[in-house]
Design brief:
- The structure is a single chain.
- By secondary structure, the protein is an alpha+beta fold.
- The chain has 3 domains: 120 residues, Acyl-CoA dehydrogenase/oxidase, N-terminal domain (Butyryl-Coa Dehydrogenase, subunit A, domain 1), CATH 1.10.540; 100 residues, Butyryl-CoA Dehydrogenase, subunit A, domain 2, CATH 2.40.110.10; 150 residues, Butyryl-CoA Dehydrogenase, subunit A, domain 3, CATH 1.20.140.
- Helix 5 runs parallel beside helix 9 and helix 9 packs parallel to helix 11.
- It is globular, with a radius of gyration of 21 Å.
- The mean pLDDT is 93.
Length: 382
């Protein structure tokens, strides 16, 4: 459907259909969302319902069971917006199927792709991406994990930390130093020498672990792409999926505003509704305005990423920063509007407050992204 038929700034029908699918799935999780979002391991009911929905087929290309010929950033973004509004656990499970397998889909050997990607599409196999290390976060070039070729195998040694889906994943795409470059290696979780530990947990509980690799041997065709070219695959993954974080943040902000509005409309104070008292109306209007602005930039960036991920990476980065910072402000205002009900443990707004905060750090912290954008701006101009 062309833009004239849909309206210049409206989503085409295939994306609104996906929004509706995702919203239906997300609402169906309300009976288990609170439990799942406090879990540090994969919730089996969330996994079963997500698998049954078929939405994880968006995470891989059609050749291996995906819905579209290529992974579509806008599709991933609009779905994450709906899922994150109801459950961080659900949103993370969906998103990581793409993030953990994208390099493999783009540059893996046919044998390995044919083995794993159909299982990723169906959620039979959980995927993970291993980048960070105990002493390495944003500065990935400082990583110490190594990959050495020996005969027809590649041997990987190292310690990855804060790995989403760690401990529950069936496959890890691991970035390692190989010679003078960095390679991405596909490592099945049941390979001898792979073990996981869970020394950390974040403020919004997450499926998270350290992954220790001790003389792990995999066939040479498990190297994804060319030797020493792993960073280009990591960059391609970020270019495709970073904007989807913005989608999730918009969804969380929308959910927080809905809770605050319901509370403000339903609570009487000083002889009238809270929604008409003092600064509350301004807070509500500011939240609404900020969300709509963030959503507009997010959809624009996601559409650009769907056309050409690398060319639109600056927009994806801007959207990620804008939406996650907006989410933080909106959720904080919502808590303030709700007063003591906003700081009560076990409530939806309390869960959103904790889940919103990490979005400003993972997949590029606000400060790191701004530094990168500033360098591009100074070098290239507008």
């Amino acid at each position: 459907m062309n833009s004239a038929a849909t309206g210049l700034f409206e989503l085409p029908e295939k994306y609104t259909d996906l929004q509706n699918e995702a919203r239906e799935l997300a609402v169906s999780m309300r009976d288990i969302a609170a439990r799942a979002d406090e879990s540090s391991s994969t919730d089996p009911d969330v996994r079963a319902r997500l698998a049954a929905s078929g939405l994880t087929r968006l995470a891989v290309p059609a050749r291996w069971g995906g819905r579209f010929e290529a992974v579509d950033s806008l599709a991933m973004t609009v779905v994450r917006e709906q899922l994150a509004a109801e459950s961080g656990h659900l949103d993370s499970m969906f998103a990581m199927q793409g993030i953990g397998s994208y390099g493999l889909a783009v540059a893996g050997s046919d044998r390995v792709r044919d083995t794993w990607l159909p299982r990723v599409a169906s959620l039979d196999a959980i995927a993970a991406l291993g980048l960070t290390e105990p002493q390495v976060g944003s500065d990935l070039k400082a990583l110490s994990t190594t990959a050495v070729v020996e005969g027809d195998e590649i041997i990987v040694n190292g310690h990855k930390s804060f790995i989403t889906n760690g401990g529950d994943a069936a496959i890890y795409s691991v970035l390692a130093r190989e010679g003078d470059g960095y390679s991405l290696i596909l490592i099945p979780a049941d390979t001898p020498g792979v073990r996981t530990e869970r020394p950390h947990q974040i403020i919004a509980p997450h499926v998270l672990s350290d992954v220790i690799l001790d003389d792990v041997r995999v066939p040479l065709d498990h190297r994804i792409g060319e030797p020493g070219k792993g960073f280009s695959l990591v960059l391609a993954t970020l270019a495709t999926f970073r904007v989807s974080v913005a989608g999730a943040a918009v969804g969380m902000a929308q959910a927080a505003l809905r809770l605050a509005l319901d509370h403000a409309n339903g609570r009487e104070q000083f002889g009238g509704p809270l929604a008409r008292l003092g600064s509350v109306p301004e807070h509500l209007a500011s939240c609404w305005t900020d969300i709509e602005a963030a959503r507009s930039l997010t959809y624009r960036a996601a559409a650009a990423a769907a056309r050409d991920p690398l060319a639109g990476l600056h927009l994806s980065s801007m959207a990620k920063v804008t939406a996650t910072e907006t989410c933080g402000r909106v959720v904080d205002r919502a808590v303030q509007i709700m007063g003591r009900f906003g700081i009560t443990r076990g409530t939806d707004i309390e869960r959103l407050y904790r889940e919103a905060r990490p979005t400003r750090i993972y997949e590029g912290s606000t400060e790191v992204i701004f530094d990168s954008l500033a360098k591009q701006l100074i070098k290239r101009g507008l």
